[in-house]
């Protein structure tokens, strides 16, 4: 349905399959040149921010865990660290290690879901993981088992697999026994081998030549791969504490979306596995470093399609880190450190699977939340996704609508956008001017 | 035969407690927990997607309760036998997860990993605004669905094949 001489053409994507959440993309092309690229998100976590106001601080971890079904631990971790900053509570030693460990579980689960079920079908030519499972049941089964290894960590430390309940300000409501953690080791060792296979598997995919000029942003602790701590750094020399986030990063409302777009000094930037790996690869574990070298890729990675490799390397890292933390685990004398409420404002950033997640809370003298601000990774990547699409679109403009739209979807999926941090779902249709609008809509 | 979770019949409730009608599956599970028999286990699975495959593992019969939106009147209860044939993913658009319940069940079927009996109860919802209670038609459907599932699980408990 390509028109002979369409001067202006609109490609609209509503409901992007295999993207968490709800949103849409609209692209306008004039005389063969991309004019506007607008990624729409319908429902940002603003009402969760409002919902938190007036609640007691100890309810916050449970409420924010319900913002996203995929990364509840990330929301809990950013929340408790911001609140602990207000109360001058420091969580160290075994409790700090357990927080790293539960975060490892979430990365393993979330990354494996994306690598195996959401993005691998794009590279292997399947419309879904279900279609892929018909031809490659052993690969999909490996993915499910790998994901389950992460889930086992979440279940043990979080008290429940899907919606963790044991994380609290000051620590946990319950900590595991040594033998409970030891009981996971055998499966984690299998998973570590499976993660090595995963990196090799995805490194063998065919990648488009699509290097982009990114400004990556990630946490960078002095001596470890980041989860809960570290300065916010960029590859253009930013180096700040989480408390300074809002001085450098600003959110703006755009007319076509009710999610806010976040920029760094007014410019788009990248968060997530690619940025994290580029900025912290020297902190990877030994095996993860070796396997990354074996891929033959040179850092920094600049191709968004390589995100699946970065994610796979991080799965391997998270497994090695889990095994290390379990081996050195010495149960703390108490599951949480005492908390004395005092009024104030606290900010924290942690590394959600999809990138840095910023929280700021103001608490009054009774421990009630007066203000809450949440900046999820997907809102930070939105401008970057639009820039990628702008660069990618000329490659697909000559294709029929359906294939052009699928190409756009693949670019968007590279980011594993968790639009459910913001909302529910996205539909995909293509409209070209000159066609009758309804007739040119294509449901994918 | 007892599985790692210890029960032969499992009821899995899905939803988000903070999103109005989207809580209905979880609330149904919560009510059922108080009333089911010895051989039935109830799991509140929140916003689980693919995880329901793990949560079903080892059970002989599973009831999944989730919110659905198909355009029917709010409060309509759909009873779908997923063990007999695929259920329509179109019914479950409001999953905030990568793979919704229908996708997860289809993946399970493809891999031969479904329990012998899988019944999905989908309750039509309307209002998912944060912090709202169930809307009246959905609250009524919750009562009805709980009784319905209870009857079915009791019947299965009495069946020798389970």
3D structure, described in words:
The complex is a heterodimer of chains A (444) and B (162). Chain A has 444 residues and is of the alpha+beta class. Chain A has 2 domains: 8-44 and 383-440, no CATH class; 51-375, Cytochrome-c3 Hydrogenase, chain B. Chain A is built from 14 helices and 13 strands. In chain A, the strands form 5 sheets. Chain A has a 3-stranded antiparallel sheet with strand order 1-2-3, covered by helices on one side. In chain A, strand 11 (344-352) and strand 12 form a beta hairpin. In chain A, helix 5 (129-135) packs across helix 6 (137-158). Chain A is globular, with a radius of gyration of 22 Å. Chain A starts with 7 loop residues before the first strand and ends in a 30-residue tail after the last helix. The model of chain A is unreliable at 1-6, 16-21 and 420-444 (pLDDT under 50). The relative contact order of chain B is 0.24. Chain B is built from 4 helices and 5 strands; from the N terminus they run βαβαββαβα. Residues 1-5 and 93-97 of chain B have low confidence and may be disordered. The radius of gyration of chain B is 14 Å and the shape is globular. In chain B, strand 1 (9-13), helix 1 (24-33) and strand 2 (40-44) form a beta-alpha-beta unit. Chain B has helices spanning 24-33, 51-56, 101-110, 136-157, and strands at 9-13, 40-44, 61-68, 77-81, 117-124. Chain B has a 5-stranded mixed sheet. Chain B has one domain (9-157): Rossmann fold (3-Layer(aba) Sandwich). Chain B is an alpha/beta fold and 162 residues long. Chain B starts with 8 loop residues before the first strand and ends in a 5-residue tail after the last helix. Chains A and B meet through helix 1, helix 4, helix 5 and helix 6 of A and helix 2 and helix 3 of B.
């Amino acid at each position: 349905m390509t028109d002979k001489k369409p001067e202006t053409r609109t490609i609209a994507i509503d409901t992007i399959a295999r993207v968490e959440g709800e949103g849409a993309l609209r692209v306008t092309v004039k005389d063969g040149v991309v004019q506007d690229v607008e990624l729409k998100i319908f429902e940002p976590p603003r009402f969760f921010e409002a919902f938190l106001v007036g609640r007691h601080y100890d309810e916050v971890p449970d409420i924010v865990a319900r913002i996203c079904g995929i990364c509840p631990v990330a929301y809990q971790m950013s929340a408790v660290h911001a609140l602990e900053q207000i109360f001058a509570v420091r969580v160290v030693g075994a409790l700090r290690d357990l927080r790293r460990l539960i975060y490892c579980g979430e990365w393993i689960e979330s990354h494996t879901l994306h690598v195996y079920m959401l993005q691998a079908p794009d590279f292997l030519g399947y419309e879904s993981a279900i279609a892929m499972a018909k031809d490659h049941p052993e690969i999909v089964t490996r993915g499910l088992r790998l994901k389950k290894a992460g889930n086992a960590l979440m279940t043990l430390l979080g008290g429940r697999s899907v919606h963790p309940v044991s994380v609290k300000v000051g620590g946990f409501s319950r900590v595991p026994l040594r033998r409970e953690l030891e009981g996971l080791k055998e499966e984690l060792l299998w998973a570590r081998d499976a993660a090595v296979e995963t990196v090799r598997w995805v490194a063998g995919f065919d990648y488009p030549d699509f290097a982009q000029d990114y400004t990556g942003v990630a946490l960078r602790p002095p001596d470890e791969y980041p989860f809960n701590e570290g300065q916010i750094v960029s590859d253009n020399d930013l180096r700040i504490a989480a408390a300074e986030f809002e001085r450098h990063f600003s959110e703006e409302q755009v007319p076509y979306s009710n999610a806010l777009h976040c920029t760094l000094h007014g410019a788009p930037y990248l968060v997530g596995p690619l940025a994290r790996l580029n900025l912290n690869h020297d902190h990877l574990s030994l095996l993860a470093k070796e396997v990354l070298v074996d891929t033959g890729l040179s850092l920094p990675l600049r191709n968004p399609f390589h995100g699946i490799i970065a994610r796979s390397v991080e799965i391997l890292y998270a497994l090695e880190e889990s095994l290390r933390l379990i081996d050195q685990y010495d149960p703390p004398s108490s599951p949480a450190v005492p908390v004395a409420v005092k009024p104030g404002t606290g900010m924290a950033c942690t590394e959600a699977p999809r990138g840095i997640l910023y929280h700021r809370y103001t608490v009054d003298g009774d421990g009630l939340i007066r203000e809450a601000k949440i900046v999820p990774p997907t809102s930070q990547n939105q401008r970057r996704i639009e820039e990628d699409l702008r660069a990618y679109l000329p490659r697909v403009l000559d294709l029929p609508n359906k294939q052009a739209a699928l190409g756009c979807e693949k670019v968007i999926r590279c980011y594993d956008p968790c639009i459910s941090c913001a909302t529910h779902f996205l539909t995909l249709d293509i409209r070209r001017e000159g066609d009758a609008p309804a007739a040119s809509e294509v449901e994918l | 035969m007892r599985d790692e979770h210890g029960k032969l019949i499992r009821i899995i409730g899905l939803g988000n407690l903070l999103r109005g009608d989207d809580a209905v599956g979880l609330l149904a599970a919560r009510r059922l927990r108080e009333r089911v028999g010895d051989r039935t286990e109830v799991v509140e699975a929140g916003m689980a997607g693919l995880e329901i495959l793990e949560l079903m593992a080892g059970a002989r019969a599973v009831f999944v309760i989730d919110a659905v939106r198909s355009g029917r009147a709010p409060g309509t209860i759909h009873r779908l036998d997923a063990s007999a044939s695929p259920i329509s993913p179109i019914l479950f658009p409001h999953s905030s997860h990568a793979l919704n319940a229908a996708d997860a069940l289809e993946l399970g079927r493809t891999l031969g990993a479904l329990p012998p009996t899988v019944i999905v109860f989908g309750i039509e919802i309307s209002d998912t605004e944060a912090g709202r209670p169930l809307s009246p038609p959905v609250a009524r459907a919750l009562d009805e669905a709980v009784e319905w599932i209870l009857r079915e699980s009791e019947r299965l408990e009495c069946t020798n094949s389970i």
